[in-house]
Design goal:
This protein is α+β, with helices and mostly antiparallel strands. It is built from three helices and four strands, in the order ααβαβββ. The protein has a four-stranded antiparallel β-sheet with strand order 2-1-3-4. Helix 1 packs across helix 2. The N and C termini lie far apart (about 85 Å).
Length: about 150
């Protein structure tokens, strides 16, 4: 037994490192899921505002909606929109870039690159921390000119 005293210390150190890595990985995955939820919520709120006011540039809304959040980096967010006049144009991809006009069908695409807080992931593995979301909606009608 006397020769075995150091074995427990080595086993504890090795087990503790594995346990610590698992805890950090769980924290990182939790942060990623929380940031996805925040990005998704803000994205939907932003689209709701955009479909009632198509004159506001979508880039200005990114800063307005994401600048107050410490967990989400607004510089990592990219949003594109394409507008289609009707469902046939949407299905045939005959659409224009931008948010379109009243009653247009608009497809919004959000892309967010999450940067892990803990540097245990390589640049090659960072591609797995990318979040993408699509939202297809129809712009509100223009009631002032009775355009339904």
């Amino acid at each position: 037994m006397r020769n075995q005293k150091g074995v427990y210390s080595v086993e504890f150190a090795m087990s503790f490192l594995i346990l610590l890595s698992i805890v950090f990985l769980a924290i990182e995955v939790s942060r990623f899921m929380l940031s996805r939820a925040i990005v998704d919520l803000k994205f939907r709120e932003m689209v709701m505002e955009q479909r009632t006011n198509t004159t506001t540039p979508i880039a200005s809304l990114i800063q307005q909606y994401f600048s107050d959040n410490a967990l989400v980096n607004e510089k990592q967010i990219e949003i594109t929109a394409r507008a289609c006049q009707n469902i046939n144009a949407y299905l045939s991809s005959a659409c224009s870039q931008g948010t379109g006009f009243a009653q247009d069908i608009v497809e919004y695409h959000l892309s967010y690159q999450y940067n892990p807080f803990i540097p245990m992931f390589t640049e090659e593995m960072n591609k797995y921390w990318r979040y993408e979301s699509y939202l297809i909606t129809r712009n509100e009608p223009d009631f002032e000119v009775s355009q339904w």
